[in-house]
Each structure stands twice: as structure tokens, then as C-alpha cells.
Write a structure and sequence with these properties.
about 300 residues; alpha/beta; 6-stranded antiparallel barrel
């Protein structure tokens, strides 16, 4: 997949007959994936349109731009268009946006049934249909009949329901960043952790302990992942994410890129009266984490 990053004022040369998937794609969940699949079904070249900057900078992310491109790669689209959505983008009328798409060579668009565009979201599917061949993908529902969306996944994660979120995403929820030094209290009781300095403002799942995988240099390590403010050893101002690798020897991860993938929630965050009490609980958590991961 060829990545083309550009400002609104300087779009790339047109690719005639282009089938283009349109959407926000935060999380790149099963609904988004259906758009990518449908775009690939076109007779000509295929692509997907991403935006360089989040639409709402105040909202934590399910995935950043790098993640979205990584998740889209397996769908074998020809182009990943990355538009620098600077302030001028948000003043585009629906006619301006349609003109922009024509300039890319688009002849076919693929959208979800709730897709809107243009200033004040004045444009809709009927406007697209007047200009392009338009494929409208129905919203996908989960096992309970609820519509899968970025918003529904956010609510699941906020409640710690990472297993349910995994079903809607089609993969485990992941965050990434650089491993940094922490207070090393875990090391003192035999549970050293890799502390993650997030590379983007990701949404952290509800505070608690999770079974998951930690990826370092592409290698997955079974892990216990803790999200929280460490109330036992001195409450932090904001929650952090740290991972204890379930390996026989320490893995030096400092300064390296790491990915945390959440598979199952083991328990909520607790405050313990001593480090010894915390250690006893972590020993139980380790057993639970191994059992949860063995079921995958």
C-alpha cells in the first residue's frame, strides 16, 4: 500500500478509476474493515482516505495514524491517502469536498450508512450518489444486536470490557509507546514492569490488571498489564500502563518501542496495606493471567 501524505492545497496526481473508502477509522473496527474490503472489490485501483490529525483533539484515541495504516495494510489496498486536515479543511462545503475527491481521480466511493461530510456535516450519501458510484455498507452489529462503532468500543474499554472490545475490533485493543524507567517498586517484590510512555493520547482501559501480550521488536511476551495510579505505593496524578512479562528472565526494554495488547481483565485496581500484601495478590494474578492466555 503506497502512502501519499499531502496538504489540501497540493493533492497528489489523480489515479483514474479510483475506488476510495471514506470514514474516520478510529480503531479500525469490523465496520471500518468492511469498507476496506468493499473498496478492494472495485475494478480499478483502490484506496482509503485517512486524516493526519484527530478530528477532536480533546478525545483520547483508539488508534493513531500509524496504527490505522498498519491495520489497513492486510487488506491489500493500493493507496493510503493521508490528508493534512488543517483548519482550511473544516471550512470545505460539500461541493468543495466532492471537487477534492474528483481531483484524486475517484470514480467510486465506499462509505458507511451514517457517513456525513462538508462544513457542518451538510453533505450526505445522496450527494455522493449524484457524483460517484457509491457503495453504502450497512452498520455491523455485535452478538447482542448493538451497532459496532468507535463510540461503543470506547464505552467498553472505559468499563474494562476488553474481551467484548476485542470482538468489535476483530483483534485485541492495543496501545504503544516507549519503555521508560518507573519507580521500580515492582522489582523490589519480584514483579518488575515495563512502564509505557504513550506515543499518542490513547484511551486507557479501566484501571485494573489484565492478561495480555507485550510486543518488543515484534516478539510477543505473555504479560500481566496494569493500568492505574498505583494507590499502594503513592497514588499518581494520572493513570499509567505498565507490563510485567511472564518470562523466566528479565527482558531489557528500556528505550524500546513496545505494544501492549489487552486480552482479558483479571480484576479492578486495589489499594493494599503493604508491599507484601500486594506481592501475594500479584502471585495470584500471575496464575490467573497464565490461565486466561492459555485459553486463547
Amino acid at each position: 500500500m503506497i502512502k501519499l501524505e499531502f496538504p489540501l492545497a497540493s493533492p497528489p496526481s489523480p489515479v483514474n478509476g479510483l475506488s476510495l473508502a471514506l470514514g474516520n477509522f478510529d480503531g479500525f473496527h469490523l465496520g471500518h474493515q468492511s469498507l476496506a474490503l468493499k473498496a478492494k472489490e472495485g475494478e480499478g485501483p483502490s484506496g482509503i482516505l485517512f486524516f493526519k490529525n484527530p478530528f477532536d483533539a480533546s478525545k483520547p484515541l483508539l488508534s493513531d495514524l500509524e496504527d490505522k495504516i498498519r491495520y489497513a495494510n492486510p487488506f491489500d489496498l493500493d493507496y493510503a491517502y493521508v490528508l493534512d486536515n488543517d483548519p482550511s479543511f473544516y471550512s470545505l462545503s460539500k461541493a468543495d469536498f466532492l471537487f477534492f475527491l474528483r481531483g484524486l481521480g475517484v470514480s467510486r466511493v465506499v462509505v458507511g450508512e451514517d457517513f456525513r461530510f462538508g462544513k457542518n456535516q451538510e453533505g450526505g450519501i445522496s450527494d455522493l450518489q449524484e457524483t460517484f458510484q457509491t457503495e453504502v455498507c450497512p452498520l455491523i452489529s455485535d452478538e447482542s444486536g448493538n451497532k459496532i462503532s468507535s463510540s461503543s468500543i470506547r464505552e467498553l474499554l472505559k468499563s474494562g470490557k476488553v474481551e467484548e472490545a476485542r470482538k468489535e475490533l476483530g483483534r485485541p485493543y492495543e496501545i504503544k509507546g516507549t519503555v521508560v524507567h518507573g519507580f521500580e517498586n515492582g522489582r523490589k517484590i519480584g514483579f518488575p514492569t515495563l512502564n509505557l510512555d504513550l506515543s499518542s493520547p490513547y484511551l486507557l482501559p479501566a484501571s485494573g490488571v489484565y492478561a495480555g501480550l507485550t510486543y518488543l521488536s515484534g516478539i510477543p511476551y505473555p504479560s500481566m498489564i496494569n493500568v492505574g495510579s498505583n494507590p499502594t505505593v503513592g497514588k499518581l496524578l494520572a493513570p499509567i500502563a505498565e507490563s510485567h512479562l511472564l518470562t523466566e528472565k528479565d527482558i531489557d526494554g528500556y528505550g524500546r518501542r513496545a505494544y501492549f495488547a489487552f486480552y482479558a481483565r483479571l480484576r479492578g485496581e486495589k489499594r493494599f496495606s503493604s508491599l507484601e500484601e500486594l506481592k501475594a495478590q500479584l502471585e495470584q494474578d500471575e496464575v490467573s493471567a497464565r490461565e486466561a492466555l492459555e485459553k486463547l
